[in-house]
Amino acid sequence: MITSESAGVPQRVSTGRLPGWDEVESLTVTAHERYRDLHDGTVADYIPVLAGADPGLFGLAVSEVSGAVHRVGDSAHTFTVQSVSKAFVYALVCREYGHEVVKDRVGVNNTGLPFNSVMAIELNDGHPMNPMVNAGAIATTALMPGATPAEQWELIRTGLSAFAGRQLTMDGTVYASEMATNHRNKAIARLLESYGRLDADPLEIVDVYTRQCALLVTAEDLAVMGATLADGGANPVTGEQVVSPDVCRDTLAMLAASGMYERSGEWLFEIGIPAKSGVAGGIVAIAPGKGAIGAFSPRLNSAGNSVRGQRAIAYLSRALGLNLFASDADARIGGTVAAERTRS
Ligand code: GLN
Questions:
Q1: Ligand 1 lined by 115 (C-beta under 6 Å)
Q2: CATH no. for residue 47?
Q3: Is the pTM above the cut of 0.85?
């Protein structure tokens, strides 16, 4: 077991700054232009009503921690947040119980298996392992405070609204369509119950979880929600302190490990920032201390990640200098370091 001491240890951060406003604006526009004619991937249809989404939609937004927001394309189009909600409900549960309890009850490791895997539960003695896929997310939702499922749902809705900086509402049609067909999620919840891993009625929790997935957001909302996690928990637009810096750090670590399902390693290798995707085509990608990108485009790859969203975020990660693992001695002090190294 790996643990990290925080008491008595100096707390510093390791991030830099975004380029200026004009450059972020023009690169956001370019990212959209580069990929708007890309038509790869297919719209999710296992939730029947999602099959009707317009595959041509494509929105991008970048929210800076300064509160500036850049928008392009269908950035104001609403869609259901789906699995992107897992990141923010996780943060709310971490806010309530803290690092250790959530690590112990839910787990923090990638399962390496698809988001709706039953096998991942069986392989780990019923321990859900990963809060960013359905089993772990259902277990996380069950940990939400609230005396009744209705109260839990309201705390989720208001909590995610605080991240977005506006009141979010649920799409009743998507919720009903998913509730009529989500036998697999109900089975996952029952399986967790059978292992003693769910402190709640399984069907009631699946109901709350399905509601959280049906909250309506825009790409701009995702950018602001993500920028709140990038900003030590303070919403850069409203100024509200939604969660603590510690919760942001824990949530972003989770997203880095597991936010893009079984493709999370590849995502980190190529793009280098924590992100979370959902089957309606949303992705939020977060650059700690700098800001976040919200993307929406309904065509998905086989893991359930938006194709255009991924490509646009990959472009912006490079162009805006977001990759957490990138360093360059030349960039550090205007080229002199590398020049001196060559001389000596
Ligand atoms: N509501 C969806 C489900 O539970 C969310 C899945 C997703 O976005 N990957 O199946």
A1: yes
A2: 3.40.710.10
A3: yes
Residue nearest to atom 6 of ligand 1 (CA): 83
Cα 292 to Cα 217: distance, rounded to the nearest angstrom: 15
Catalytic residue among 247, 279, 284, 307: 279
Taking the CA of residue 134 as reference, the ligand 1 atom at the shortest distance is 4
Q: Is the CB of 130 under 6 A from ligand 1?
A: no
DSSP 243: S
Q: Phi/psi at 10 (nearest 5 deg)?
A: -60, 140
Encode pLDDT of 290-329 as tens digits: 999 999 999 999 989 999 999 999 999 999 999 999 888 7
Average pLDDT over residues 202-219: 98
- The ligand 1 atom at the shortest distance from the C-alpha of residue 279 is 8
| Beta carbons of 233 and 245 less than 8 angstroms apart | yes
Counts for the chain of helices (H) and strands (E), in that order:
15, 9
* 32 and 103 in a common domain: no
282 lines ligand 1 (CB under 6 A): no
Q: Please give the distance, rounded to the nearest whole angstrom, from the Cα atom of residue 209 to the centre of ligand 1.
A: 9
| Tokens linked to 251 | 């949530």
* Alpha-carbon span 97 to 144, nearest angstrom: 9
Residue with tokens 């509160």: 67
Q: Is 186 one of the catalytic residues? A: no
- On whether both 236 and 316 belong to a single domain, the answer is yes
| CB 273, CB 287: distance < 8 Å | yes
Distance between CA atoms of residues 323 and 197, nearest Å: 36
- Tell me, yes or no, if 4 is annotated catalytic: no
Among all chains, which residue has been given the structure tokens 């069907």? 203
Cα separation, 307 vs 39, whole angstroms: 8
Residue 195 annotated among the catalytic residues of the structure: no
Burial classification of residue 206, based on how many CB atoms lie within 10 Å of its CB (0-12 exposed, 13-18 middle, 19 or more buried): buried
Same domain, 48 and 152: no
Regarding whether 93 and 57 lie in a shared domain, the answer is no
When pLDDT is cut at 50, 70 and 90, the band that residue 35 belongs to is very high
